[in-house]
What we know:
By secondary structure, the protein is α/β, with parallel strands linked by helices. Pfam families: ChlI, Mg_chelatase, Mg_chelatase_C.
Amino acid sequence: MAFARTCSVALVGVEGVVVEVQADLEPGVAAFALVGLPDKSLTESRDRVRAAVVNSGAEWPQKKLTVGLSPASVPKGGSGFDLAVACAVLGAAERLDPQTLTDLVMIGELGLDGRVRPVRGILPAVLAAADAGYDHVVVPECSAAEAALVPGMSVLGVRSLRQLIAVLSDEAVPEEPQAATDRPDPMLAGLCVPGGGVGAGLSARTSSDDGHRPDLADVAGQYAARTALEVSAAGGHHLFLQGPPGAGKTMLAERMSAILPPLTRTEALEVTAVHSIAGILPPGRPLLEAPPYCAPHHSATMQSLVGGGSGLPRPGAVSLAHRGVLFLDEAPEFNSRVLDALRQPLESGHVVIARSAGVMRLPARFLMLLAANPCPCGRHSLLGGSCECPPAAIRRYQARLSGPLLDRVDLRVMVEPVSRAELTATGARGEPTQRVAERVREARERATARLVGTPWHTNSEVPGHELRTRWSTAQGALDQAERALERGTLTARGLDRVLRVAWTLADLGGRDRPGTGDVEMALQLRTGVSHGLPLMNGVPS
């Protein structure tokens, strides 16, 4: 009896389990059995592996072959096991030394000609291997940069099974032809399944097709909305922009990700892992360092927004926007059940999806921006707007955003139409993105210094009990907010969120703790009721 084993990784969401791939050869009628809860795509690897081995110049063993994937109780799927299965078979056939395979983790799909193709989820798979104590991994050559992001991991990138056999046998490594540079690399095709819904409305902090980078200086006027945008970015607070069409709600939202600080190394790995699973990593950029921006259409289903699908669930928009911005334009047009499904990830920072094929936990700590018109026609409350919507239609339209969802939104701002003077005045450009981003970065640094030694990084993450007991405000600063709680205009959750926003305002102003003005400003930004506090140039004054 001949036996060999190597390892690969089975992914469930962004979590991985190291799987031991065992190959056993016994005398008997030539057959190939694959056991260990494989799915359809993994079962088909028998034909891919056989053809790849033969076309790589190796001899296929004409014996009874059994390949086992252990632990057998873990469901396994995808084509990423092909490379490990092929090497285990060659080790059992003594074409490769079985001892050289034992401590290797192999991830990659095999083409019929023996080429090694990339698969989705390389980064989380290598992270799982590192957590399990492995330090050598074999991946497709085009995915080597992504795998190398894991510290302390020795990465071998191969272009074909023929090359891997030569490396493991200490033979001369053959040259493999590269893909033509004047057309898309066919090796990258299929990483993102067309029609899967992932990646729609998704972009990072990049320039548009015409080379113009959206800048806050393009927004005329809108001092209150610009202030809310800055406070939202500085503290990670959710924001609701309401106003008539053409007032600038979408312009403001599209510039939010540019004023957010760059991702830390840990955050970048989290974001990259989710995007790797979805297969939407930009070519040539193995690590995403800018906060993502995701803006799904209002016809999005529950599965595309929260995650799901048949079989093992796939990441939804809330996970693709992790550590970034989720913008829901025309929010009342979304299905109410879909919107209410956001309540749990807004509180917990993750989403748990249960399906018959398994339970998947995905990160979902995003900054939510909602935009809505005041009524179906958008002209309600405008002077001379001639809104013809019946009062009942206006109430139904505004009621599509449920109270529990809006109670989780820290900032609510009315975006008024821009006046002619603001739009046409010479030198009327607002503050540029770079200047606002610098203030946001400084405010976040103050919050990080205050929260050092705690599990929280931004003011929006700190529980209200901790804010009230560990970090005190100025004496009497909360009086007006507490009266609003007694009158019922604020909930207990709302009071905590007002306190969080007040700390963010204090950080933006360089103050050690919030004063009465900070709390009143936070109350004004949450309720929309003016307390006579001026807003100048997008900066709380």
